[in-house]
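Pipeline run #58 for the internal structure catalog. This entry was flagged by the ingest filter as a single-chain record with no existing model, so it goes straight to prediction. Upstream metadata was stripped on purpose; only the residue string is passed forward. Reviewer on rotation: M.T. Logging verbosity set to normal.
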Amino acid sequence: MERAKQHNPLWSRFWPAAGGDWSEKQLAFLLNVPTAALVLLIVAYPLVYVFLISLQSVTISGLRSGNTPFVGLANYVTIFSDSLFLTTLGRTLVMSFVSVTLMISLGLFMALAMNQKVKIATLTRALILLPWAVPPIANGIMWGFIYNSRYGHLNALLYSLGLIDDFISIIGDPFLAQVGVIWAYVWRVIPFSALLFYAALQGIPEELYEAAEVDGANTWQQFWKITLPMLRPVIAVLLILRTAFAMTIFDEVFAITQGGPGDSTWTAAWYSYWNSFRLLKIDIGAASSFVLAVIITLFALVYIRFVYRPSE
């Protein structure tokens, strides 16, 4: 066996010869094997399974009897012929863009504030973790109470400031309901972005800023020429992760609006849930879920290609 390994040029790229030392590439390969196995098990297998379901006609009775005939791309033709799916898909893209933009910008602002060498920054670091500790469903229920048109604190605050003449139905208005869902979601996940940015800021050498000051660079120029380029890998990671999660937003929709009023807060994830568990059209739900997974993958590839670029 050992002799075969030594004479196999392909295997030698990943495994050292008998008594030999590990190269950096071989060690990197070995350390990534468990991660690759987990990704295949947790991500790839469910995706393949969902795709196979989307190619069949699947009902509850069919699952019980094992009768799930192959229908090819018929389920995809169905969802792309459904104006509701196209509307929810477009709305999901808009809501994702707004929420990710807010998370990146507000998270970076909060990280810069936490990075300041002042006493209040310590308190800020502690408080920033509180929203992240709230479970998604509990967060949705909490914001549902805040938005309530009869006793909600948001209405009470706006009324006391004289901005409204009477309590308004935030959840009952299509536009305000979308804004409410987006903000409830952003409020919960901002700490993740802020903490990643804060950790990245700690790794930027102070010598770079000192040299920039000597060269006469102001604060904005230092941020644009030093801070932002150094944060590019973190921004790429955040864009990939937060876009993926934002496009599958479900908990806040479930807890605050239930997709209403009408279908104004339906997202792609809610469309899949509604078809799979309310209408029991499991094949349609699987097809819409797979389309969403493909879109998220395409966004991730674009981010990696245009945002995450090694420094020259």
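catalog note: Residues 1-6 have pLDDT under 50 and may be disordered.
catalog note: The domain at 84-306 is CATH 1.10.3720.10 (MetI-like fold).
status: ready for reviewer M.T.
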